[in-house]
Design brief:
Chain A: It is found in: Gas vesicle. The complex is a heterodimer of chains A (83) and B (259). Chain A has 83 residues and is of the alpha+beta class. Chain A has 2 helices and 2 strands; from the N terminus they run ββαα. Chain A has a two-stranded antiparallel ribbon with strand order 1-2. The longest helix of chain A is centred in the C-terminal third of the chain and has 11 residues. The N terminus and C terminus of chain A are likely disordered. In chain B, α5 packs antiparallel against α7. The two termini of chain B are 46 Å apart. The C terminus of chain B is likely disordered. The chains are: A alpha+beta (83), B alpha+beta (259). Chains A and B meet through β1, α1 and α2 of A and β1, α1, α2, β4 and β5 of B.
Chain lengths: 83, 259
């Protein structure tokens, strides 16, 4: 059922869609926050599985970590609103 | 592998109403287990056996924090839900719903039959579609080197900040417009959390992560509404679906409500 389709704005705003593998993040959005919650015989707190924690883990284990913004010159009083 | 003689751990994927569809022979789910149906009270549940060790009370909490295990389990769970969803109207269960044996599943189906019938009625003839909107990366700020004076430096810096802030509000407005357009033709709308590039794998900033429950008959109209709202070249739109309506199992806020 889930053909995943991608589109970019081009001349046609929603052009023909290319299939690709479902992104894990799309799945987790739905599986961790959705689905019918029944009280099973083993109660699992999925609230403990937070996407933020997963993203942190992804960051830590990422092969090419994002460079922290370094060397930025900041003058006193000039950093509000910069982030 | 029949497990009629021992009490095993039964993992529940999805529930539907009779008559049940055929389960493909080669359909496998979590832990590579085969999928079968358990029937009760005019309902069927697609279930499979899973290793008791992985799904014991203390083990599962730890397992779910293991990203590779979580990913494999989520994909296996979705695969079964999706395959059953192609064949029937289904209510997807939350990840890792397990019972001690099929008898307990039957008991739960009987107890919750009215809820399932109501939910399945709401899903009939509808599907979930996802819309993610990305804002193009901005040209990097020019380094503020060699400002003629402190005043000049501050002026440049302020103007750069103003520009960033203007771009961000334009992106935000564009995303809101797309959400309104998508929700306008949908039965219900939900917004998932926005994710950082570390999680999405895309350098652009995510500005909308919406889910929309759309009548199958309105599919083209829904896409057309989105296309019409896609005015801003800086934004790119990614549509996913159709999904089994995972995001809509709880009672819906009115479509179009900005949450």
């Amino acid at each position: 059922m889930s053909e995943v389709r991608e589109t970019d704005r081009g001349a046609d705003p929603l052009p023909a869609l290319a299939q690709r593998e479902i992104a894990l993040v799309d799945l987790l959005d739905r599986l961790l926050a959705g689905g019918v919650v029944l009280v099973g015989d083993v109660t699992v707190s999925l609230a403990g599985v937070d996407l933020i924690r997963i993203s942190l883990r992804a960051l830590i284990t990422s092969i090419s970590p994002v460079e922290p913004a370094s060397g930025r010159v900041t003058l006193p009083g000039q950093d509000e609103g910069a982030s | 592998m029949p497990d009629t003689t021992t009490v095993t751990t039964t993992y529940v994927y999805a529930v539907g109403e009779d008559p049940p569809p055929d389960v493909p022979d080669d359909l496998t789910g979590v832990a590579g287990g085969s999928v079968r149906l358990v029937r009760e009270a005019g309902l069927w549940a697609a279930v499979g056996g899973v290793p008791e060790d992985d799904f014991a009370e203390d083990a599962i909490a730890t397992r779910l924090e293991d990203l590779s295990w979580l990913a494999a389990t989520a994909r296996a769970h979705h695969h079964v839900v999706d395959e059953m969803g192609r064949r029937a109207v289904v209510a997807p269960l939350a990840l890792a719903t397990v019972y001690r044996g099929d008898g307990r599943v039957r008991q739960t189906l009987a107890e919750r039959a009215a809820d399932f019938v109501e939910l399945l009625g709401r899903f009939r003839g509808r599907a979930e579609w996802g819309v993610k909107v990305w804002a193009a990366e901005r040209a990097p700020e020019k380094p503020p080197a060699r400002a003629a004076s402190g005043t000049e430096y501050l002026r440049r810096r302020r103007s750069a900040l103003d520009r960033t802030s203007r771009d961000e509000s334009a992106d935000h407005a564009g995303a809101e417009e797309l959400h309104r357009a998508a929700a306008g033709v949908a039965v219900a709308a939900r917004r998932h959390r926005l994710h950082a590039p570390a999680l999405t794998g895309r350098p652009e900033r995510m500005v909308l992560n919406g889910a929309y429950l759309v009548e199958d008959a309105d599919r083209d109209r829904w896409r057309a509404a989105l296309a019409e709202a896609s005015g801003d070249d800086r934004l790119s739109v990614e549509i996913t679906g159709p999904w089994v309506p995972y995001s809509f199992v709880s009672p819906d806020p009115p479509a179009g409500e900005v949450t």
